[in-house]
Amino acid sequence: MKILIRLTLLSLLIATCVSATWADERGKHPYYLHALSDLRDARAHLEFLSPSERRDMEEEHAIREIDMALREIHQAAIDDGKPVGEHMPIDAHLKRTDRFHKALELLDRARKDIGREEDDPRARGLRDRALLHIDEAHHIIERIIHNY
After folding, report:
1. How far is CA 88 from the centre of its chain?
2. pTM over 0.70
3. Concatenated DSSP letters for the chain?
4. What is the pLDDT of residue 66?
5. Which of 74, 83, 108, 130 has the highest CB neighbour count under 10 A?
């Protein structure tokens, strides 16, 4: 009887350790998923145009930088599987400059999410390249706002 109780306790302990390890691995980069969401939303704010608006080359460049950051993060983390086009609805009543400012805010949030310490050397390089693309998109949007 004592052996049965000990074996049961031992198996519970092993099951707990295995599930905790698995849960840790699955949730290792939840902030990358937040960054993906913020980047998709920032991209949508740049991509949205009213019927009277046209996108210029600088805006296209910022969108390409965001796309490159998305690709780097997809490689560095568990992808949530959502397409680039899946984002929060854009407020159609926002002025164009307000959309630019919202995109900056979202880029800042994404940068904060993935800017944390990374212990995986392979993911570190991908994360660093994603940060460079986020920073470049941020600088482009700041220039657009300044020149607007």
Report:
1. 14
2. no
3. -HHHHHHHHHHHHHHHHHHHHHHHHHTS-HHHHHHHHHHHHHHHHHH---TT----HHHHHHHHHHHHHHHHHHHHS------TT--PPP-TTS-HHHHHHHHHHHHHHHHHHH-S----HHHHHHHHHHHHHHHHHHHHHHHHHHH-
4. 94
5. 130
Task: Work out the average pLDDT over 16-32.
Answer: 47
Q: Is the pLDDT of residue 51 over 90?
A: no
| Residue 115: per-residue pLDDT | 84
Domain boundaries, the chain: 29-147
Beta carbons within 10 angstroms of residue 72's beta carbon: 22
Q: Which residue has the higher pLDDT, 1 or 148?
A: 148
